[in-house]
Write a structure and sequence with these properties.
Elements (H helix, E strand, L loop, with lengths): L5 H14 L7 H21 L13
Helix pairs in contact: 1-2
Length: 60
């Protein structure tokens, strides 16, 4: 799988913001929304301490 790293996603968000993409339903706006969602998920995943998951305490 070729997922973007958190740094790459942060860079993409910065590029979209500099481009002034508005939430107008355009293809660009939809892609920006997907990138923001992926960034939030990646940030959450990278902040998890997997030791907290021992014994079934969390689900991935």
């Amino acid at each position: 799988m070729n997922d973007f790293t958190l740094d790459e996603l942060n860079t993409l968000i910065a590029v979209f913001e500099k481009a002034g993409i508005s939430d107008d339903g355009s293809v660009e706006a939809l892609m920006f929304s997907r990138v923001k969602t992926a960034q939030a998920e990646r940030a959450e995943l990278e902040s998890m301490d997997f030791d907290d998951c021992l014994g079934g305490g969390c689900k991935l």
